[in-house]
Design brief:
The chain is built from 16 helices and 4 strands. The protein has helices at 2-26, 33-62, 65-88, 94-115, 123-148, 156-173, 194-211, 215-234, 238-256, 259-279, 281-291, 302-314, 337-345, 347-370, 374-398, 416-466; strands spanning 176-177, 180-181, 184-186, 189-191. The strands form 2 sheets. It has a two-stranded antiparallel sheet with strand order 1-2. Helix 9 (238-256) runs antiparallel to helix 10 (259-279) and helix 13 (337-345) crosses helix 14.
């Protein structure tokens, strides 16, 4: 009986996920606010139904009450997130909030399932839930800081100095993990500074390009950006180095509109990649695993091969929760969680996750294009590129589309640094969305003022034309209408 419920549940979850994904893009076609609100409420219903079905199936499979406690705690946290954003920031993008909650839900479902077999059952799931709660706290604080701090574009070299120092400290003092120096362990929690430095890096590039786009300043900015990438290469953090490199190229091209700069950057990147391949054995192993994971199955290709086996085993509809073997993939909770999801929930479910991430990126670009402040426009573009390229690196690595870079899937993979930095990133985007709403409100007020002034002048001209010649028209005293207070 339980097996029948599990098999039915996977189709229900795919249907719920597909309906949610469709609504993410259909909302862009809504012309009226009431229609948009109905779509957003429907998304919330689908989100909580997904939690109910998934955790209910996991409870039936394990008969462990701790799963029900995790379900209740997750539902309370995400309900609080949705309500707090609506109360504190009524002008934020509800679509971004809902997408964030859905990705967190998917991640918590799979981490709960994977951590059930650990030595300390559900320890990873409990810690991830704590990371979510802490991240939400930061995510609620950041938008008001973005709105109030008007001098963020002045700290150009402070961003570069703090970020470069943090990366250099990792390169010099951090222990090696999997062939790379990634971060430090504090009180049993791994802290990866590069996850936070990428935000500082975006602010540095945005502030520098906003200050000047002359050739001299571009050379200085490029040199500092190259130093960040070089430090990451020395610590063999290939994924982070690629993110920094691509983000800088995208921001530079948008700011200057010079294809020559982009071409020169791509050429330098290719040369750096070739040099890194010959200098670092860690990179060579990953390339070998990418080229022939089956041939190197007993060595570096084992992880990628297991990932491909998992995806192939799941097929379009998955095996169902607790019906696969995702725990055979090394570091599955972090680097290869997408493979675990596609094995037990199906490739269709995995494609829906990718499309939800793409809808977030579309929203980020929409915000960037509509902002009038050039500095914030660059920030929105940089953070959006950083987010979507990290998704590409994670999914591309586990599917053998590109060599594995060890990147996490934002909001889905296990990890405190990834969760916190992505929450801060989304909080910044929400702050920029509020600034965009403020700019639109200001423009509308100016248009209304100009319209009233224009109507006043037209009335005066009309009165002067209709007045008899050589006669004085009596002046009328009018009372000003009190303007409504801004809500």
């Amino acid at each position: 009986m339980i097996n029948i419920v599990i098999q039915l549940s996977k189709y229900i979850m795919i249907a719920l996920m597909a309906a949610y994904t469709f609504s993410c893009f259909s909302i862009f076609t809504r012309n009226y606010e009431d229609e948009e609100k109905r779509v957003l409420i429907r998304q919330d219903v689908l989100l909580f139904l997904m939690q109910f079905v998934a955790f209910g199936v996991m409870y039936l499979s394990t008969d462990d009450m701790r799963i029900l406690f995790l379900y209740a705690a997750l539902a309370i946290v995400l309900l609080a997130v949705i309500l707090l954003y609506n109360l504190v920031y009524p002008n934020v993008s509800r679509l971004v909030v809902n997408n964030m909650c859905m990705l967190i839900t998917v991640g918590m479902i799979m981490i709960t399932r994977l951590s059930s077999d650990n030595k300390s059952p559900y320890g990873s799931a409990i810690r991830q839930l704590v990371f979510v709660a802490l991240g939400v706290t930061f995510g609620l604080i950041v938008p008001v800081l973005i709105r109030k701090l008007t001098f963020l574009d002045k700290w150009t070299y402070i961003y570069a100095g703090v970020g470069g120092t943090a990366l250099l400290a990792v390169t010099l003092f951090a222990p090696r993990s999997g062939g790379a120096r990634l971060g430090f362990e504090v009180m049993g929690i791994n802290i990866q500074p590069s996850e936070f430095v990428k935000i500082l890096f975006v602010f540095f590039v945005a502030a520098s390009l906003n200050k000047s786009r002359e050739f001299k300043n571009i050379v200085v900015t490029t040199a500092i950006a190259a130093a960040h990438v070089l430090i990451l290469v020395l610590s063999t953090d290939l994924g982070a180095a690629l993110i920094f490199f691509v983000v800088y190229l995208a921001m530079l091209y948008v700011a200057t509109r010079q294809p020559l700069y982009a071409a020169a950057g791509l050429g330098a990147g290719v040369l750096a990649a070739v040099a890194g391949y010959h200098l670092f054995g860690h990179i060579q192993n990953r390339v070998v695993a990418w080229q022939d994971p089956i041939g190197s199955y007993s060595g570096s290709g084992y992880q990628v091969a297991q990932s491909l086996f998992a995806i192939g085993t799941g097929g379009w509809f998955g095996t169902g929760l607790f019906q696969g073997q995702p725990d055979t993939i090394p570091v599955v909770e972090t680097d290869f969680i997408f493979s675990a999801i596609t094995e037990e929930m199906g490739v269709i479910f995995g494609l829906c996750i990718i499309l939800i991430c793409v809808s977030c990126y579309v929203m980020f670009l929409n915000i960037a294009m509509e902002l009038h402040n050039r500095f914030y426009k660059y920030v929105a573009l940089g953070l959006g590129t950083c987010y979507v390229f990290q998704v590409f690196l994670q999914v591309g690595g586990v599917t053998k589309f590109i060599p594995s870079t060890g990147m996490t899937l934002p909001f889905v993979s296990y990890g405190g640094s990834s969760m916190m930095s992505t929450m801060i990133m989304f909080g910044i985007i929400q702050g920029l969305y509020i600034l965009r709403e403020d700019e639109e409100e200001k423009i509308e007020k100016e248009k209304e003022r100009e319209s009233r002034n224009g109507l006043g002048r037209a009335a005066v001209r009309k009165a002067s034309k209709s007045a008899p010649k050589f006669e004085e028209v009596p002046r009328q005293r009018t009372r000003k209408k009190q303007r409504p207070r801004a809500k």
